[in-house]
Amino acid sequence: MLKKAILPAAGLGTRFLPVTKASPKEMLPIVDKPLIQYSVEECVRCNIDEFIVITGRNKRAIEDHFDYNCELEETLRIKGKEAHIPELNIQNDLNFAFIRQSKPLGLGDAINCAKAFVKDEPFAVLLGDDIIDPDDTLLADMIAIYEQYKSPVIALQEVPLEDVSMYGVISGELVSGQLYKINGLVEKPKVEEAPSRLAVIGRYILTPDIFAELDVIPPGRGGEYQLTDALSLLLKKRVIYGYLFKGQRYDAGDKFGFLKATISLSLKRPEYTEKLKKYIKELASGF
């Protein structure tokens, strides 16, 4: 059973400057939860309870968020606000390890930092920029595919042709339904060179043999170690599957995507639904 997840959180967050100068992008809130908590809760729904968070400088707030805060809990008790205490303790029954990536050397390097903790087990990788609607079952579906085939599984989404240069893109053959057998991967291809419109998004189920490939890949685009390059090497040795996701994904690493996620997920909160709908209608009527 898959029990471990890697959460890369060492990026500089330059698209959200100036707020990310001192605050981790992963701690930006959607309503009252930081981005990274959505990834953790997604894993918990799939019975994953061991987390390896790859952090960097100025990321201490992430570790604090998943720690107990005795002083805050005591203050809440004194003020008669005990109802808030369970909301603070998402870490109950979960295990967290925090590893600092010394330099921002890319996703491949970040995942490789977790090698000693993963050991010989399969594991999930969730990129916090990609918020999957909590009503969707992407990660659970991918885990089921892994359990059936015992092979790595990569989440895919069909994107407009003009956007392919922002993603890793696969070539592959349809096996059945939404499942593809991947034949090749290209990192951020030019539009005219893209093998398809099937883009890799931020959910992976990987096997421990990926670390041997991460150890030997050279720096790629931007001087960073690309997970796509390691997967391309692994593809020569074993089958890798892609799962085409047709649900709702928000690119919260983009400012407009973050705004869409905030509005959409706020509308799913019963205490805000009607008020927010009314406010949006009133606001829209003024433009």
Describe this protein's structure.
With 287 residues, this protein is α/β, with parallel strands linked by helices. The chain has one domain: Spore Coat Polysaccharide Biosynthesis Protein SpsA, Chain A (Alpha-Beta Complex). The protein is built from eleven helices and 13 strands. A nine-stranded mixed beta sheet has the order 5-4-1-6-11-8-12-10-9. A two-stranded antiparallel ribbon has the order 2-3. The longest helix is centred in the last third of the chain and has 13 residues, at 255-267. The radius of gyration is 20 Å and the shape is globular. The model has no long low-confidence stretch (mean pLDDT 93).
Please, what is the average pLDDT?
Answer: 93
The CATH topology is given as Spore Coat Polysaccharide Biosynthesis Protein SpsA, Chain A
* CATH homologous superfamily placement: Spore Coat Polysaccharide Biosynthesis Protein SpsA, Chain A
Number of strands: 13
Structural class: alpha/beta
Topology:
Elements: E1 4-8, E2 29-30, E3 33-34, H1 35-44, E4 50-55, H2 60-65, H3 70-78, H4 85-88, E5 95-100, H5 107-112, H6 115-118, E6 123-126, E7 130-132, H7 138-149, E8 153-158, E9 168-176, E10 179-187, E11 198-206, H8 210-214, H9 227-235, E12 241-244, E13 249-251, H10 255-267, H11 273-285
Parallel strand pairs: 1-4, 1-6, 4-5, 8-12
Antiparallel strand pairs: 2-3, 6-11, 7-13, 8-11, 9-10, 10-12
